[in-house]
Amino acid sequence: MTSSISKCLFPVAGLGTRFLPATKEIAKEMLPLVDRPIIEYGVEEALAAGCKEMVMITGRAKKAIEDYFDRSFELEELLKSRNKQTLYDEVISLSEMADFIYLRQHRPLGLGHAVLCGEPVCRNEYFGVILPDDVMVAEPSVLAQLLAVHSERGGSVVALEEVSAEDTSRYGVVAAENAGNGVFAVKDMVEKPGPEKAPSRLAIMGRYILSPAIFPILERQQAGAGGEIQLTDGIRTLISQEPVWGVVYKGRRFDCGTQPGWLHANIRLAMEHPALKEVVLRAVKEYEEE
Length: 290
Ligand code: UTP
Hints:
Layout: E1 7-11, E2 32-33, E3 36-37, H1 38-48, E4 53-58, H2 63-68, H3 73-81, H4 85-97, E5 99-104, H5 111-116, H6 119-122, E6 127-130, E7 134-137, H7 142-153, E8 156-162, E9 172-180, E10 183-191, E11 202-210, H8 214-220, H9 231-239, E12 244-248, E13 252-255, H10 259-271, H11 277-289
Parallel strand pairs: 1-4, 1-6, 4-5, 8-12
Antiparallel strand pairs: 2-3, 6-11, 7-13, 8-11, 9-10, 10-12
Helix pairs in contact: 3-4
The chain binds uridine 5'-triphosphate.
């Protein structure tokens, strides 16, 4: 049991088909959410949980992510020469705060397979996993909330959210015993069950702290729902070997993996941005007056 984790894995090798054509050549994680790419929110969440190594599992069309977290000397020189100190600081800050490691998933065989691609870097210790297209706005960060449960109880931890009966078919859903204070002992899980098959309405939401014991399990894992190697199936096997906890996180989630979700997140967060609130209100007013 540890009170800190140093590595956070970001599986970003998916094809983003729900966001085509925008994602044909641009990773969905690089689309802007208000003033920054979506992925930056995930990296900040991991930093806030104390992680110092960001392990990106990338695929085709994801080169922009590598460039984004690298230094850009031409841009830095230009900003310096124009005395744009604040922008200069923003441009270099993230690449200074963490180490970025890139591993390639050559074929999009599923989330479980993407996590397995992180084995060379993460095999010796507990590590975090963030699916960055679910943007979490929370204080403390959702990954830090999971880490608190891991520190207290050991084992792996998944983020949970109570969803409506109609929505269980969109997520992995757990069967779990209430351990108090929003923490559940996970006994089983099912990937994308319809309401009649769902063991509860507690769905897994894109944030994990995983034991390295997941790797040998994922190596043997057969394809499951949708013909993909599912992380949920791997964690299901892990439950028979080690404790897995679920925690109903406190915070707000924005699903930026689809166009309506991304648009909603942009409008909602722009309304909370002092300089942008007026822009949204003006656009709505103009529309209503037309
Ligand atoms: P999604 O289910 O959102 O799939 O993956 P996707 O391919 O990104 O998007 P759609 O469904 O086609 O629109 C959940 C997470 O798992 C990663 C994705 O990048 C995303 O962060 N993933 C998925 C991989 O890294 N590799 C895979 O083979 C599949």
